[in-house]
Design brief:
The protein is of the alpha+beta class. The protein contains 7 helices and 12 strands. The protein is elongated.
Amino acid sequence: MPAKGKHRRPKSLRITRSIAVAGTGGAALALPLMGAAGAHAATPAAAASSATAKTVAAAPVAAQKAVTKTYAVKAGDSLAKIADDQDVSGGWKKLYQDNRKAIGGDPALIHPGLKLTLGGKAASVPAKPSTAAKPSGKTTQTAKTQAAPAAATSSSGYTLPVEGATVGTSYKTAGSMWSSGYHTGVDFVVPTGTTLKAVGPGTVVSAGWGGAYGNQVVIRHTDGQYSQYAHLSSLSVSAGQTVTGGQQIGLSGATGNVTGPHLHFEIRTTPDYGSDVDPLAYLRAHGVSVG
């Protein structure tokens, strides 16, 4: 019988020793096998996860390849016509945005053989500064320079054909899309429905459909020269009507062969195509400020 005051060794210690022995005994050989089994079991899951990640990553690329195709511009094409024929989502503006680097700064300057991407990713646009700042005097002056001057009627009775517009394609810009090899007028970039004015006094010689020019008005002025206004959405005058400088003759639009709404304006020595002269020089000669 044990003496008083002495503690017996707890049985738990024996259990601990048993576990320790087991850990260093026969079970020691089982541990690597268990580890190997665990590793083997994890492999399919890891492979599945990796495969899923690759599939997800490849999905946008595959989708892009599925919807992206190219189109070679043909004679007589315009961005609006191509967008309509090819069912481009977003119309000619999206088509131009996606291909701005290839086309350049003027959407009207496309030529046969030019490769356009249909449904491609648009070029990235630089992020706007997070903090708005007031434009400097230099920036304001640049904006004023880019904008067309106000269309105030000169003392000679002549005026600009449209107010507050910027010039898009200028006169005699070279390009194979024009039968003459160059742009025979000047384009004023304005939204559809903008009021258009006769640049000077004269008589309307034609007002109606002009083929590639869409709805157009041609006026014979008192100095013997002719002005042409093309791609109108509506007409306000008719052939034989007398007009004064600054009188409304119609509204701007995008009829005919165009890539977007604008006014195509020409000055001619005859009412017919091919007799063009510099339209802005003509207006300056009549006292109209054109910048």
